[in-house]
Amino acid sequence: FIVNLQPLRESLASIYKEHGEDKIALYVEFLNSGANISYNQDARYYPASLIKMPVAIAAVKRIQDGYWNWDSKLVIFDEDVDTKFGTIGNLPIGTRLTIEELLKELLTKSDNTAYKMLLRNLGAGPVNDFLTETGLVEFFDQDLNITAKEYTRLFRSLYTTSYLKREYSQKILNLLSLSERNYLGQAIPADIIYSHKFGENVTEKIVMKTKNILLI
Questions:
Q1: What is the pLDDT of residue 16?
Q2: Is this model's pTM higher than 0.85 or not?
Q3: Of the residues 11, 19, 70, 89, which has the maximum number of CB atoms within 10 A of its CB?
Q4: Residues 39 and 15 sit within 8 Å (Cβ to Cβ)
């Protein structure tokens, strides 16, 4: 079937002009045809909590490959504690949490402590493996900034199960559909699963950036 993106393109263009062409990066793609809408798609921005997605995917890959289990437990170290986002950092040092609990907190609440715990136990290797094997070798620049277009490719790898098997990709997408900050989903019917990740930095006045995919 044919999808006409022009009405959406015109609607987004007015928002784009209203808020400043140098302040917004946007990339929307209809996966069946490749038709897209883009503004500053290759401009690089500070990712804020969007940086957590590659770590979540790498952690689930460890489970898929049998190195970890969903109920494997990790321990909170003092160096992990970060209470700017999420509540795990309020727990006592030495608390043990399952990887499934950590991933749920990371993907639904963007918990900073959960992110640091997973990254510390993973190391950079599995994260880099994910980016390399999915062709996202330029996902980050030297300052760890990202582009809107490249970020959609990360979600595409989940939707098409090109890196993780379907049950594991779907697990991540299901958790993302429960995100507590639903910035882009207000106009989407409640019966459509809407998977998304937000990232924001109020201190540095970074504009909120959310990337999404619809599963029907």
A1: 85
A2: yes
A3: 89
A4: no
Handedness of CA 55, 61, 62, 68 (dihedral sign): positive
79 membership: H or E segment, kind and range: none
Cβ neighbours of residue 106 closer than 8 Å, sequence gap 6 or more: 52, 55, 56, 86, 114, 115, 118
Return the number of other C-beta atoms located less than 10 Å from residue 203's C-beta. 7
Q: What is the pLDDT of residues 111-125, one digit of tens each?
A: 999 999 999 999 999
**141: DSSP letter:** -
Q: Which helix (H) or strand (E) holds 178?
A: none
pLDDT-based confidence at 202, cuts 50/70/90? low
Q: Give the residues across from 190 on adjacent strands.
A: none
- What are the angstrom distances between the C-alpha of 131 and each of 90, 120, 159, 181, 210? 32, 18, 16, 26, 20
Give the residue from 106, 108, 104 showing the smallest Cα distance to 55: 106
Q: How far apart are CA 27 and CA 148, in angstroms?
A: 6
Question: Which positions ≥6 away from 60 have C-beta within 8 Å?
Answer: 103, 164, 168, 171, 172
Q: How many CB atoms lie within 10 A of CB 87?
A: 12
Radius of gyration of the chain (CA): 18
- The separation between the first and the last C-alpha atoms of the chain, rounded to the nearest angstrom, is 15
On whether the CB atoms of residues 74 and 100 are closer than 8 A, the answer is: no
